[in-house]
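Reproducibility note. Readers wishing to regenerate the assembly model reported in the main text can use the exact inputs given here. Chain order matters: entities are listed in the order in which they were concatenated for prediction.
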Amino acid sequence: MSKFTENKSPDFFFLVYEIVRCIPRGRVSSYGAIAKAIGSKASRQVGMAMNFSHGVQPPVPAHRVVNRIGVLTGKHHFSDPGAMQRQLEEEGIRVVNDKVQNFEQVFWDPLKEINL
DNA sequence: CAGCTGACAAAGA
DNA sequence: ATCTTTGCCAGCT
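Running the prediction on these inputs yields the following structure tokens for the assembly.
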């Protein structure tokens, strides 16, 4: 286990940021996968961390984090609701009706990619 | 100080 | 297959 797992403290947000920043361009991840990567099941707090990521440095690609079915649940929390979908499409991810198409193809699993 | 909320997910019925 | 319940834990009221 790396610097991730083995943690369940206020660093939760920080760990979430680390994982999210590792998401490659053109890929997306889910709250649960990120939470699991940290060693927790608090997928809700992952969303909270995203909400807190406004002004965080380096910037966190929160637009690449969606729920487990690929729906852009948090697009309303962005400066502009449409920005999330626009950025995803710009990265090659097709989004229709606030839902990521080919989700299983663009899905990026931190546990599988980071801790190898 | 105590309870409720929430960018979710997995298990039970 | 859908609906309901529980866990999760920081932040707010």
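We highlight two features of this model. The radius of gyration of chain A is 13 Å. Residues 12-21 of chain A form the longest helix (10 residues).
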